[in-house]
């Protein structure tokens, strides 16, 4: 059975105080959330500990936005897997397009981060997706196939989530048609050795398109940016019909 995972990627938003305020509004909304789905919040590193204490005992899981591939060492500015697992982190986003675009992440470093996450008992959420230019050139399939091939070397597909995030749909309000997201996610699934991997869609997911997205047969969840920052909108997404 494929697991449904609804995750909020807060990117570089929210201080600890803002996180606490968010949780006050958000947690009561979970009382009516069906148990068929896992809810994950991925705040900035600085809010992980605060949120970990508040989430303890709740249905919500904690996620980080990055992880280094070494277990420790002289890597200024990086965070290791043991530091995340110690404070209750369960998921970690790896290879987000913003990391690939602004911070020089390559498929090779993404692969090493995936392996590190699994070594520390964390479930990586691997992000893949094409740019607008690549889509227009008809390269969507080849780009994604290439990312999967390189990123997943030696990765255990029993402990993995994949997010299909077309880069042109991120933060633009320009959602990928749900049927098209379903098609690409089906293509991703066909290339995996484990057909039960949870595969999410990400890119301008909002309260008004979540029901349609989640009605697609191949889509097992969403990775939400902007709309996960407000308690009411993220609650509506989590409580999709
Ligand atoms: O990048 C995303 C999630 O990782 C998507 O961001 P938006 O939902 O703001 O488009």
TrEMBL record:
Keywords from the named record: Cytoplasm, Gluconeogenesis, Glycolysis, Isomerase
Active-site residue numbers: 96 (electrophile), 165 (proton acceptor)
Catalytic activity field: D-glyceraldehyde 3-phosphate = dihydroxyacetone phosphate
Compartments where found: Cytoplasm
Entry's Gene Ontology cellular component terms: cytosol
Pathway note: Carbohydrate biosynthesis; gluconeogenesis; Carbohydrate degradation; glycolysis; D-glyceraldehyde 3-phosphate from glycerone phosphate: step 1/1
Enzyme class: isomerase
InterPro entries associated with the record: Aldolase_TIM, TIM_sf, TrioseP_Isoase_bac/euk, Triosephosphate_isomerase, Triosephosphate_isomerase_AS
Main location (coarse class): cytoplasm
Binding locations of substrate: 9-11, 171, 204, 225-226
Record GO terms (molecular function): triose-phosphate isomerase activity
GO terms under biological process: gluconeogenesis; glyceraldehyde-3-phosphate biosynthetic process; glycerol catabolic process; glycolytic process
Organism superkingdom: Bacteria
Gene3D superfamilies according to UniProt: Aldolase class I (3.20.20.70)
Assigned EC number: 5.3.1.1
Functional note: Involved in the gluconeogenesis. Catalyzes stereospecifically the conversion of dihydroxyacetone phosphate (DHAP) to D-glyceraldehyde-3-phosphate (G3P).
Family per similarity comment: Belongs to the triosephosphate isomerase family.
Quaternary structure and partners: Homodimer.
Protein's recorded name: Triosephosphate isomerase
Native source species: Crinalium epipsammum PCC 9333
